[in-house]
Structures are given as structure tokens and as C-alpha cells.
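Issue: ligand-bound run for zinc ion - logging full I/O for the record.

Environment: standard queue, default settings, no custom constraints.

Inputs:
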Amino acid sequence: MTMEKKVIKAETTSFRCKEIPLTRRELKNLLNYHIPCLCCGMEMLHPDTYTEILDNKRFTGKAADVIKELEPFEKIMHPVERQVFNMLKSMSEKYPDKDFQQLLVMKKEVHELALVKIQSSIFNKISFYRRILPKKTARQLRKLIIKTNDIIFDPEPHKPFSRRIFIHKIKNIISNIENKRIKDEILTIARRLPRSSDEVCAFVVKNARKRPEVIALNLIHPSVGTFEHLTPKCFKGQNNSLNFALECCYCNNSRHHFPISMQIEENPYMPENAQVQIDKLISLCKKDLCKKEYVENLASTLNSLSDGLIDIDVTNLYK
Ligand SMILES: [Zn+2]
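Outputs:
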């Protein structure tokens, strides 16, 4: 709560005395210059390029053709997506007439087994807590795990397992536990459940259900550049470049409205990556492609919102 109050206060002050340094269009156009994501440091894709692909339906058709369309984007793909891309690429040489979905379906079984192995070991670890939880909570936990095991061990479940829903249910079950340490432990274990963004097997299983063109789009979608609200909208963060940082779609979505200090916990290299992005922006300022005021405001906002964890060196701006 203190965090929230502090954030709102800092925000209103900046609203009073600062001019908006860049328009939305100007900020978006910086993505033409290979800007790395503030958080993960990966190069981002200009959102207009992504929209152009969507509009022209360039990703429909046989795998071999779509691979050619995707090749220019390989260097900006995130690690799991790049692995899947390379898998599809070598498969498309063998089966040039199949589409992406047909290829993923061929791989689904083996990846699903791998995924179920990881998932069930995590459910086992969570089940252990039944021994130390209050009786009612333990009973609810047992019920959830039995239901979830029914889903993951069924080769054709009625509804596929959803990590998001599972974590939501776990949160509800443990919400009444007083021991915060145990609560955190259970949630930390649950969060280790693979996401399609961090395990190839989870990507294959999830995407084998999607249309071929959606699979192709999902390979590059995490890399699309977005405006991250440094102070989240729900904490009255402004909707302009005084409160915007350039972040890839994946990092932006995974932060939700959590404070930056928590985002750093999940991404320990964020302070270094933020410096790399700002160095790049400074070099654009020297060519009159970005504004000094934007960089100054970004550096000081990051510093105050991260309680000093992101301590940017902007001296090059004045050299
Ligand atoms: Zn990122």
C-alpha cells in the first residue's frame, strides 16, 4: 500500500511541471532503430510491421512458404519461439505440403508427455503441503489436484489444462492461510508450471490447437514493441510518453500491474538491459531522432519507481 501511495504522489508532481517529451507516434517510430526491450533486452519488432503481416495474411498456406515469410524475423524471435521455428523449418523440408498446425500435431504427443512429466512433479510438490495445512484447506487442495491430474493424464481432456486458471484457484484456496511463508512457497512452486513462452513442450501443446496462421503469428508476437505504463493505468499512470517505456509484448504482459521491483525479481538483468536501451536512445538523441527530455524523464522515473534498483547513467547525454 505504501508503494501505491508513493507512486501516485510522484506521478501528480511530474504531471504538473513536465511537458510531454514525445508524441505517441514519435515514440513508436523509435522502434525503427533496433531498440532492445527495457526488461529482457531482446530487439523489438515495429508494431506496424506486425499489423501489415496481419492485414496481408502473409502467414497462410503451406509450411514451406510460411517459413520463407518468417525467416527475416528469426533474429528477433524469443528463445522458445526460435526453437519451435527451427523445428518447423526442418520438418517443412520433409513435409513441404503440410501446414504449421499439421506439423505441430505430429509432434504433439511426445511434447505432451514431456509437459505432463514436468506438471505432475510440480503437483506432487504442492500436494506435500496437505500435511501441514489446516484440514479444510488441505481438503480443497486435494480436490483441486485430483481434478487437475484427471485433466493432464487424460489424452483427450474435455477442457485443456490452463496454468492461469490453476494458479488462480490455488490462490483462492490458500487465501485464508495465516502463515505467509507457506503461502509464498506454494505459489512459487505453482508459478514454476511451464508456460508456452518458456518451454518448447508447452508451446507445442498449446499451439497444436491453433490455426496455422495463428501459430506463425505466435512465433513473433512476443517480440512486438509496446508502450509499457511505468506507473500502471490502475494506479492512475498517465497515458503519454512521460509514463511510457518501450518494452516487448511478452515482458509488458507478464508484468501486469506489479511494481517494477517485482519485475526485477523475475528478470534480474533488467537494470543492465534498461541501461542498454537508454544508451541506444542517447545515441539516437545525438542524431536528433529522440529527445533528451524523454531520456532524462525515463531514467529518473525508473530510478524512483524501482527504489533505486535501476540506477541509470545518463552522463553520455551531455558529452
Ligand atoms: Zn522483453
